[in-house]
Design goal:
Elements lengths: L21 E4 L4 E4 L5 E3 L14 H7 L34 H14 L2 H19 L4 H16 L8 H15 L6 H8 L3 H14 L9 H11 L4 H16 L8 H15 L6 H8 L3 H14 L3 H4 L1 H9 L1
Antiparallel strand pairs: 1-2, 2-3
The structure holds a DNA duplex (17 and 17 nucleotides).
Length: 317
DNA sequence: AAGACGAAAGTGGTTGA
DNA sequence: TCAACAACTTTCGTCTT
């Protein structure tokens, strides 16, 4: 019987005799205490590979698992294509070639319209996510939303691109990595009100809860676009927290709140940014920043900002 | 001259009758 | 379906630095 003892990283102790000498018996799938013989785990699955590789060629020959499946691929990443390219087919004996050429042709023909559509849609999605610097997790989530939309025939009557864009917008919000409608509208080349409309439609039809976005989710990204320091980010989040407690953020556009909070924080830390600069990256106007700014400073006391009257006196003099 | 401020009018979307 | 409404934008004149 082959007993394999894995000592590395396993700091588990036997609850019965407190011994550290545990043993994995892979032929039985059990974790056993060497001292008292207690079985601590049963039906373990051995995830290690049972073959060894001596060079990279070996690895390729013996490996049986492929890439992980992905919803962001039209075939989920699992596909068999007859005669990839053409070279494979010409490796066959001449007699067999026509047969495989025919099979190849038919494989292309039977791929249904929805499959082709999905392929195209997911290619679009890929383009959006890479242009917006979104992580693969968000792309996956968006792909799932899109698949659900297709399954429910929600694409009918609206452009495929707008549904893809709306799926992405949904996924972004669920992931706490929101992009503004403007940003998505930009890469997708679709008016933002259409994306918004489709988004609401999808959310309702698919029963996706739509929580308003948290301004905090925007802050780090805006800050980095403005070259603001981590101190300013921390400060912004503090201010935002207080603002939330004072109910100054509800009902307001989250980007506007984020922008105003950043603007104030930047002033406090001496990394001055103009309203224009902040407004530009946040996709709001200076007026909105001013309005939020006014509301915030009215209810919150910023010592540093209140010193202004002194300066005014000095200039009058 | 550039930035900040504020008033006024306009826009797109939501809500409630 | 329509009107009321809040948030936001656009535009513009004025003030401050």
């Amino acid at each position: 019987m082959a007993l394999v003892v894995h000592s590395s990283g396993d700091t588990k102790k036997c609850p019965k005799c407190n011994s550290e000498s545990l043993m994995k018996d892979f032929t039985r799938g059990e974790l056993v205490c060497k001292k008292c013989g207690a079985v601590l785990e049963e039906n373990m699955i051995d995830f290690s590979q049972e073959w060894r590789e001596f060079d990279s060629g070996d690895a390729n020959k013996r490996r049986r698992a492929g890439a992980p499946i992905s919803l962001a691929r039209h075939d989920k990443g699992i596909s068999t294509e007859i005669g990839m390219g053409f070279s494979d087919i010409f490796k066959l004996p001449p007699k067999l070639r026509p047969k495989f050429l025919r099979l190849k042709k038919w494989q292309q023909r039977i791929s249904t319209a929805t499959e082709r559509n999905l392929k195209y849609a997911l290619a679009e999605l890929k383009r959006y996510t890479s242009q917006l610097n979104l992580p693969p997790g968000v792309e996956e989530a968006a792909a799932l939303v899109y698949r659900r939309a297709v399954a429910k025939e929600l694409v009918r009557g609206r452009s495929m691109e707008s549904v893809v864009a709306a799926s992405l917008y949904t996924a972004c919000r669920e992931h706490g990595t929101p992009r503004t409608l403007d940003e998505i509208a930009d890469v997708a080349n679709i008016p933002k009100r259409e994306i918004g409309r489709t988004f609401r439609f999808l959310a309702r039809q698919l029963g996706i809860r739509i929580l308003p976005t948290d301004p905090a989710d925007y802050i780090p990204r805006f800050a980095s676009q403005l070259n603001l320091s981590g101190i300013t980010v921390t400060k912004s989040l503090e201010i935002l927290k207080k603002a939330k407690e004072l109910e100054l953020s509800s009902g307001r556009g989250p980007t506007g709140v984020a922008a105003a909070v950043l603007y104030i924080a930047a002033q406090l830390t001496g990394e001055k940014k103009t309203q224009r600069e902040v407004a530009d990256v946040a996709g709001v106007t200076e007026v909105t920043i001013r309005n939020r700014y006014k509301e915030l400073t009215k209810q919150m006391r910023f010592k540093e900002l209140e010193e202004k009257p002194v300066i005014i006196e000095a200039t009058i003099k």
